[in-house]
Here is the input.
Amino acid sequence: MPTFWVAAAVAVVATVMVLTRSQPVHALLYLVVSFLAVAVVLYTLGAPFVAALEVVVYAGAIVVLFLFVVMLLSLDATAHRERTSWPTYLGATILAAVILVELGVLVSREPIVAQAGAIGPREVGLALYGPYVLGVEIASVLLLSGAVGAFHVGRRDEQDAGAFYAESDQRVPGGREEPVLEPVSVDDTLPAAERPARDGRHAAGEEAE
Amino acid sequence: MMTSTVPTPSALGLAAVLLVLGLAGVLIRRNLLLVLVSIEIMLNAAGLAFVAAGARWHRADGQVMFLFILATAAAEVAVGLALVVQQSRRIGTLDVDAASELEG
Here is the structure.
């Protein structure tokens, strides 16, 4: 029970720190601490499976995705040139150390195997592939659509997705001013022998189309 | 892991506090990326509320809902970050007030 309150306090403090940091990377690292604290809270609530999932998926995949984008866009381009002073480390270190001590207490106090009160992976799995199997299928379709949608929304120009999708990046320096789609004549799709004669074109069709 | 001795109102109160903090982040932050981070905080808080409710009735349904919220958050983060990247390319800044003109 006291572990719940300690972890809850760490989660709230870390979340407040996320909201008040000026640099995105600092905010994201405090977000990791917040998610770890919420994972400990979930463990004290008798849900060890989702506690592990919180760490693996939320802190381990989603926040990493945010950090990739920060790196991609060079949002903190000037920050790494300065030496980070130790007060910057101090807050996150203290919070993370509290979580670490708490985890040590939780793990050493009781057997790790879930006892009668906890709802472990087995019950969750039986529920997922029992009454909630439709939700599992829908979630998989949702993730597929998310991946395809992210690719589609994030594509840049013809380098990413082929010439057909080239678009005008009008506000990007050096971008094209008009779409690169060129009108295709129907005559080009005919077999070479049947194309109408034009100036400078061989009847044997040197064009690929 | 003993039976959950955490009183449900406390866990729901924590979820409420985190939700409100996330909401404040969405309203206060000017960097689009950090607005998305605040949305993730809110989704996490909602999932925590579901797990707390599931623990109160001692069923697995709360954790199942948390799993679905997790999948939704992952898909939404993927698309949202693609949008962030597009704004950064086309407008040049991630300021939320910069994307203020509709095309055509």
